[in-house]
TrEMBL record:
InterPro entries linked: DUF559, Endonuclease_DUF559_bact, Restrct_endonuc-II-like
Signal peptide: none
All residue ranges annotated as the DUF559 domain in the record: 11-105
Name the UniProt record assigns to this protein: DUF559 domain-containing protein
Annotated organism of origin: Winogradskyella psychrotolerans RS-3
Superkingdom, natural source: Bacteria
Length: 117
């Protein structure tokens, strides 16, 4: 089987960079914890591309993808796209976990044993 590069495609570099500079509030909040390896000392990347999809957060060691969903993901077309994308990632052996934005703010501090107040 040919070894095709599926990570960090060069043609998506500028778009990934723009997404990193413009994180949503929930992405920025979660990134504060993930970038300092507070989740079992695992290293995460943000706005990482796998194939032609850009995932919110990616842990290579665990083949783990974390996606944060805002209101736009309640749209049937967006849900269909999300399902297609998840199937693709899972077909490559990735575990995809999705959270609603609200869950990040409501539950993340207790997950990491922190009080955000």
């Amino acid at each position: 089987m040919p070894n095709h590069k599926i990570h960090s495609k060069k043609e998506l570099q500028d778009y990934r960079r723009a997404l990193r500079k413009n994180l949503t509030p929930s992405e920025a909040f979660l990134w504060k914890y993930l970038k300092s390896r507070q989740l079992s000392n695992r290293k995460f990347q943000r706005q990482h591309s796998i194939g032609y999809y850009i995932v919110d957060f990616y842990c290579a060691a665990e083949k783990l993808v974390i996606e944060l969903d805002g209101e736009v993901h309640n749209n049937p077309k967006a849900q269909e796209y999300d399902e297609k994308r998840t199937r693709y990632l899972e077909s490559l052996g990735y575990k995809v976990i999705r959270f609603e934005n609200k869950m990040v703010f409501d539950f993340l501090p207790s997950v990491f044993g922190r009080n955000t107040e």
